[in-house]
């Protein structure tokens, strides 16, 4: 296991970790997370990739794999090696690469390694140091282990979709393919645990996560399993109402039921629930500042039970207050009173956000092939000693074949790379 | 003693509510000693809100709390006393990691900001995860998952274009990017510390961490100058792609056809092979163009059929499909889910409690998976076994009132 780092990743935490990425979209974010922390991630691709993974949207709406914004976003810092795994030569090179890799990441049940002559247990026996992270639709122990899932299917089967949307509409898929993201993050976590473990034991592990289970974790509050166990309740879609407030049986649903209020120019989210102590008094001051308090200054409302039984009225007062003002003004004035209010923002809003700009969140990425730069989302975390970084834009298919074979196998590409590979 | 991969790690966990504690859950499950520093005078609200058994008034039984704090220890400590603070510092001195998700300057008020922590333990790894991060003009702003999902742009791309930005029905960021990104950063920092002897500070702004989950939306704006709209259940890359009404009340089955092979299989599965040869459905582009009409036809086929039977039929033809399951379905109709994921957790104060199992499985490693701690359950253990304080001195500490 060589751990020589290229200069560009030397200050990064996963510098020198060699990863083979054979994932489909459920795993793209997993290998991106590791690549952006400095790991050397190679995607094994072939001529079918351009057809199968030609995911939109596309740059300037021109449908071509090199314009796939999906590829741009998820394959930052990765390298592409063109290898036909169904050819004998391709399989041999792949097995050689496995011999020097630290981590293999695949997505099941349709993993490309299923077509190899060598099986999972043989890989394990032959490469005891290799960590194999397998991202599955459903657990390998599940009766659904052979079933396939895309993002929407996993959201459906996990329980998350049943609580997303308005009760009068069909259930909604959350934006941005969140089942894929959830699963990828758990897979990256498992991979890193196995890597730490290997540092001590010298032995690799098989790591497994499933989309159904990882996504399901996001239901554990709103649709906690015990609502059913203890109260025989299955949580449903609540629309704009706080998930705690319908059906309600506990004190956490006090004050006002809604989470989203329409304002003069859009929407704000407001969390009266779980607010710090004294929130009611500060809420009143906030209303007063804008002359929105109506009768809420009446001392009877100091009693939480009175507030509880007048939820609808308080909600109306709040709704009228919000309608009077623009989202940004509500946001900053509420936060001054330590009230939990944040505007519903679109992507454009994020680019004029003072906080994000001050912290230089977004990052410019140079696309060598276009002699142009584009702005990408920045670091999900800032590590003070080992920076997160996007060094390279997504590769073209096969862009790094020779380079990687040379570096990983210390071979001249011409020697091993034949036409059927 | 189980041979767990993180058993040489100790975490002093000042996290509260959801995102902080959920970040260290996986560490505890894989053997790290995660010590929750709590207080009885200001009980972590997640101990008392949400799903609770009827008629039990206790800070130990809430469903969410028990879900996100498995395998941890709990110690109660009054950090607003000098003695309490010095015990906390003592614990930090022998910990590898210190975590918190307070906003603003809570930790520095106790003298526990990274600069101070480093003085106590030079190679400490400190994670701080306030909503807005550790600097910037809005660093003191607060919010929870419901607010972050709105601010970070996920609500804006969820739901239907003609409807309000409904959000996610879950305090999603509290369960997703924020704890998961935090765990990833911590593991990376631990590996770096193991190799170099250097600790570091992890500044995780929950707002930024959630923006990182927007997929291509940012590039659609920066490269194509387009602000993505709410797509309903449509996908730019798949058709048919939605949830379809099935027999019964509020029953739905998700179907996602992602390539031509799946399309051909789909038409055969539902007994409409002739659709495959119609030019208006012959390619993904064509199906996208006629999506509304196609969705109507599919709905009329699904609406008289059982959701689970549709799923099985389509999956047996190699087409991704899945029932929109609610909690009751998960616990009563999906035997795999209850077998592989749900844990019946024994608890001293409740007869039955169901907890989400550890999502990560590692070969030849059993995750630990003990029940979440009762409030202050491990005071004696932490003071005696971990800090090595004499029994008689521990008694004095109880009397002094610092352990609350």
Give the class-level CATH name of the largest domain in chain A.
Answer: Alpha Beta
What would the principal axes of the Cα set say about the shape of chain B?
elongated
Using the 3D structure, state the CATH architecture of the largest domain in chain B.
3-Layer(aba) Sandwich
Strand order of the largest sheet of chain B: 3-2-1-4-5-6
The residue ranges of chain A in which pLDDT falls below 50 over 5 or more consecutive positions are 245-255, 413-421
Largest sheet of chain A at a glance? 6 strands, parallel
- Largest sheet, spatial ordering of strands of chain A: 3-2-1-4-5-6
> How are helices and strands ordered from N to C of chain B?
EHEHEHEHHEHHEHHEEHHHHHEHHEEEHH
Question: What structural class do helix, strand and pairing data of chain A support?
Answer: alpha/beta
| CATH homology superfamily of the largest domain in chain B | Crotonobetainyl-coa:carnitine coa-transferase, domain 1
Give the count of helical stretches of chain B: 18
Quickly give the CATH architecture of the largest domain in chain A. Answer: 3-Layer(aba) Sandwich
Number of strands of chain A: 12
The residue-averaged pLDDT of chain B reads 95
Structure summary, number of beta strands of chain B: 12
Oligomer: heterodimer
Number of helices of chain A: 17
Which properties best describe this structure?
heterodimer, A: 421 residues, alpha/beta, Rossmann fold, formyl-coa transferase, domain 3, 2 domains, six-stranded parallel beta sheet, three-stranded antiparallel beta sheet, 17 helices, 12 strands, 13% strand, elongated, disordered C terminus, B: 404 residues, 18 helices, 38% helix
């Amino acid at each position: 296991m060589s751990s020589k780092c290229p200069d560009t990743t030397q200050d990064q935490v996963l510098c020198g970790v060699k990863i083979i990425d054979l994932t489909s979209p459920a795993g793209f974010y997993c290998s991106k997370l590791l690549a952006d922390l400095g790991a050397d991630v190679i995607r094994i691709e072939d001529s079918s990739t351009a057809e199968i993974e030609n995911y939109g949207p596309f740059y300037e709406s021109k449908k071509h794999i090199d314009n796939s914004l999906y590829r741009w976003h998820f394959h930052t810092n990765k390298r592409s090696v063109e290898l036909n795994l169904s050819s004998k030569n391709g399989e041999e090179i792949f097995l050689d690469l496995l011999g020097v890799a630290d981590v293999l990441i695949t997505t099941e049940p349709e993993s490309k390694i299923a077509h190899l002559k060598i099986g999972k247990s043989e890989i394990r026996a032959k490469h005891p140091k290799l960590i194999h992270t397998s991202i599955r639709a459903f657990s390998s122990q599940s009766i659904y282990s052979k079933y396939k899932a895309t993002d929407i299917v996993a959201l459906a089967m996990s329980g998350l979709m049943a609580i997303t949307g308005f009760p009068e509409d069909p259930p909604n898929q959350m934006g941005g393919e969140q089942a894929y993201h959830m699963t990828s993050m758990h897979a990256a976590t498992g991979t890193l645990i196995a890597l730490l473990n290997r540092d001590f034991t010298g032995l690799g592990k098989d790591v497994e996560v499933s989309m159904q289970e990882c996504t399901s974790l996001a239901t554990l509050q709103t649709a906690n399993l015990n609502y059913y166990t203890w109260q025989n309740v299955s949580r449903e879609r609540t629309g704009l109402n706080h998930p705690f407030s319908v059906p309600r049986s506990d004190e956490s649903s006090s004050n006002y039921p809604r989470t989203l209020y329409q304002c003069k120019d859009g929407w704000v989210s407001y969390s009266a629930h779980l607010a710090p102590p004294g929130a009611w008094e500060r809420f009143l001051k906030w209303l007063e500042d804008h002359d929105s308090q109506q009768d809420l200054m009446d001392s009877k409302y100091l009693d939480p039970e009175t507030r509880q039984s007048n939820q609808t009225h308080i909600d109306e007062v709040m709704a009228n207050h919000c309608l009077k003002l623009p989202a940004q003004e509500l946001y900053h004035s509420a936060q001054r009173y330590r009230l939990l209010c944040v505007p519903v923002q679109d992507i454009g809003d994020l680019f004029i956000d003072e906080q994000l700009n001050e912290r230089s969140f977004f990052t410019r990425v140079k696309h060598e092939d276009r002699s142009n730069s584009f702005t990408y989302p920045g670091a999900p975390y800032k590590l003070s000693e080992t920076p997160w970084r996007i060094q390279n834009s997504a590769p073209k298919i096969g862009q790094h074949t020779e380079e990687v074979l040379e570096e990983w196998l210390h071979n001249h590409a011409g020697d091993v790379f034949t036409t059927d590979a | 003693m189980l041979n767990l991969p993180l058993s040489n790690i100790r975490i002093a966990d000042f996290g509260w509510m959801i995102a902080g504690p959920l970040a260290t859950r996986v560490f505890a499950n894989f053997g790290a000693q995660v010590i929750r520093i709590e207080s009885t005078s200001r009980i972590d609200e997640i101990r008392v809100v949400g799903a609770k058994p009827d008629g039990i008034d206790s800070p130990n039984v809430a469903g969410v709390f028990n879900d996100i704090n498995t395998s941890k220890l709990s110690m109660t400590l009054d950090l607003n006393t000098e003695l309490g603070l010095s015990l906390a510092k003592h614990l930090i001195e022998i910990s590898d990691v210190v975590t918190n998700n307070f906003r603003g300057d809570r930790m520095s008020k106790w003298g526990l900001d990274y600069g101070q922590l480093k003085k106590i333990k030079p190679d400490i790894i400190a994670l701080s995860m306030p909503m807005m991060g550790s600097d910037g003009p809005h660093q003191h702003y607060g919010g929870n998952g419901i607010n972050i999902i709105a601010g970070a742009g996920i609500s804006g791309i969820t739901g239907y274009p003609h409807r309000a930005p409904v959000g996610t029905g879950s305090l999603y960021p509290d369960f997703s990017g924020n704890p998961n990104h935090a765990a990833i950063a911590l593991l990376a920092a631990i590996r770096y510390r193991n190799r170099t002897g250097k600790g570091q500070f992890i500044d995780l702004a929950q707002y930024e961490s959630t923006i990182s989950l927007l997929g291509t939306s940012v590039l659609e704006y920066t490269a194509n100058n387009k602000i993505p709209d709410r797509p309903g259940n449509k996908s730019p890359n798949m058709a048919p792609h939605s949830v379809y009404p099935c027999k019964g009340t509020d029953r739905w089955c998700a179907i996602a056809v992602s390539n031509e092979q799946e399309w051909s299989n789909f038409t055969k599965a539902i007994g409409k092979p002739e659709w495959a040869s119609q030019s208006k459905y012959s390619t993904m582009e064509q199906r996208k163009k006629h999506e509304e009409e196609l969705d109507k036809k599919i709905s009329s086929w699904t609406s008289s059929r059982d959701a689970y039977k549709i799923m099985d039929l389509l999956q047996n033809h190699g087409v991704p499909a899945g029932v929109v399951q609610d909690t009751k379905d998960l616990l009563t109709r999906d035997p795999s889910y209850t077998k592989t994921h749900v844990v019946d957790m024994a608890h001293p104060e409740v007869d039955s409690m169901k907890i989400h199992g550890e999502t990560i499985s590692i070969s030849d490693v059993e995750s630990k998976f003990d029940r979440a701690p009762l409030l202050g359950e491990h005071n004696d253990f932490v003071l005696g076994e971990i800090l090595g304080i004499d029994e008689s001195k521990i008694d004095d500490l109880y009397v002094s009132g610092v352990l609350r």
